Amino acid sequence: MKIKWKWHIALMVLALLAAPPLVFSRASASTLYDSNGFENFTVADVTGQDGWTASGSGGGTAPQIVTTPYPVLGTKAVLLQVPDLQGSASVIDHSIPTVIPGDQTIMVTFDIFRQMSYPTRAQNLWWWWWDAGEPTYGLQWDSGGSQPFQTLPHGWNPGASSTSTVFYQFATIKMVWDFSSDKAYSWYDGVLIDDGIPINNISSLSGWTINLSHDLPTGTGWDTVLIDNFSITSSVPQPTPIPVPAAVLLLGSGLIGLVGYGRKRFLKK
Q: 55: how many CB neighbours lie within 10 A of its CB?
């Protein structure tokens, strides 16, 4: 009877050790583009550096890489400028490897420094994906309209919200598209703005534009924007095994011991 009991215990312990490990999900991240703070760029036109294109129109300045005495994080940033002329613009663009949405989470983040020519005036700063769908654009609104000086990370898309724009210091904007749940999120200056608004009809993501645009009438002032630390990343949940903790094994062994002890007493009867 003792031999049967020992084999019984051994088999149950082996079964516990052979059981599949616990599994949880973690994100596997990849970089679609990272400016690395523009630190490796030359102080000159942005166009042609690290895949960027840039342009000025209607009197707007073609974006430049600048350093101090301009406000920068690190040593360099991108300068966009428009004169006091309606219709002028200063624009930067960058492509990424085309993303076909599945269960990825896409994040776009960059730092913005806003400066106005007058204390009560500002022009529009727009940003957008090159692709169709919602939400695919956002902006910092000028001094006109019903939302002056507001930052709208996901624009006027259904459910989107806004907050006051920060001036004369850098503030970080972060926008997230979670395609596993078809929800979009955003943060500005560390504050949550959009907490899961609907994603609709986005079938691809292929590039990004930032556009400083003098949309107000002439006479409302020139404007200057600096952009730093621009990046786009993608993450996909990945299953990761977790070894069974030793405490769990010991607990299992103790329970098995109790079962074995009961079995032994039963066989002796």
A: 17
Strands 22-34 and 163-164: what pairing? unpaired
- Omega prior to 135 cis, within 30 of 0: yes
Three-class DSSP category at 113: strand
> What global pTM score does this model have?
0.80
8 Å CB contact between 223 and 212: yes
Assigned CATH topology for domain 27-237: Jelly Rolls (2.60.120)
Nearest CA among 68, 70, 113, 62 for reference residue 92:
62
**Which residue do the tokens 């929800």 mark?**
183
Identify which of 180, 186, 235, 174 has the alpha carbon closest to the alpha carbon of residue 26.
235
For residue range 208-264, list pLDDT tens digits in order. 999 999 999 999 999 999 999 999 999 987 665 555 555 444 444 554 454 454 444
b/e 72-92 (16+ beta carbons within 10 angstroms → b): bbeebbbbbbbbbebebbbbb
CA proximity to 205, closest of 153, 139, 110, 133? 133
